[in-house]
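Entry:
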Amino acid sequence: MGRVASGAMADDARHELLSRLFDHAPTFPPASLSTEEALAADRRARESEHAWLLGRLVWPAGRLAELPQDEHRALAVVDGTTESQGQTTFVEGISKIRCGGAAIPSVEELAAFIRRCRDDGVLFKATAGLHHAYPTAAGEHGFLNLLAAAVFGDEEDALREQPGAFELDEESFRWRGREAHAAQLADVRASLFHSIGSCSFFEPVEELEALGIV
C-alpha cells in the first residue's frame, strides 16, 4: 500500500483515522525515560517520516519546570487521574481508560466504556498497553481493535478480532463487509476517540508499517 505523507489529502482515510493518534508519554512507565532522554526521543519522533501520527507530548504536572523554555510543543499535562490538553480535560474512568499496566480491562469492560462514551457523547482517550495493532497472547488489547470498536460498534466482536481482520488504506477502513470513509473516520476521531497515550511512539508505528498501512 502507498505511504501517507505528512501533507496527506484530507480525504485519505488513513490520515483521518490515524493523524495525531499517538500522544507520546516517554517519561511514564514502562519507558520511564529521564527528561533529557524523553525530549530526545520525542524529537526523533517529530523528525521522523511518520510524524503525522504523533500527537501531544504527555508530561507530568509536577515536572513541567524541567521542560526547556523554548520547547514549543503541544502538551498533555497529567496530574493524578486527570489529563489536560488545552481546553480539554480527560478524567480516568469517565473520559480516559487505562488498557494496560497494573490491570488490563476485560473485553467486556472496555466495550462497555466505549459504548457509554458513544451514548453519552463523551470524547475519550485510551492509554497504557496499546503498543500493538492487534491483541497479544499476553492479553493486551490492539489499538486497531479499539479504533474499529469506535468506528463500527459491535464493540466486543471488534475488540476480539485477530490479525488480518481489518483493512485500512487511502479509500476506507473495512471490517466484515462494512466500510467507513474519510468523513466518517474524521467525525469519530473528533467526537468519540480522541487519542492513544503511549510511552513509545515507534513501537505502534512499526506495527502499522509491518501491516503495510503506513
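Residues 13-63+74-210 form one domain.
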